[in-house]
Amino acid sequence: MNKRLRRTLIWGYIAALLLFTLYAALDTFVIPHRMTAVSAAEQAQAALTGEAQSAAAQVTSAQHLDTGGEVVGTYEDDDTSIVITKVREYNTDIYIADILVSDVSALRSAFAEGTYGRNVKEDTSDIAASNDAVLAINGDFYGSRTQGYVIRNGVLYRDSADSDAEGLALFADGGFAMYRESEIPAADLLAQGAVQAWSFGPALLADGEIAVTENEEVGRAMASNPRTAIGFVSDLHYVFVVSDGRTSESTGLSLSELAKVMRSVGVTDAYNLDGGGSSTLVFQGEVLNHPTTNGRRVDERAVSDIIYIGRKTT
Question: Are residues 246 and 79 in contact, defined by beta-carbon separation less than 8 angstroms?
Answer without folding.
Answer: no
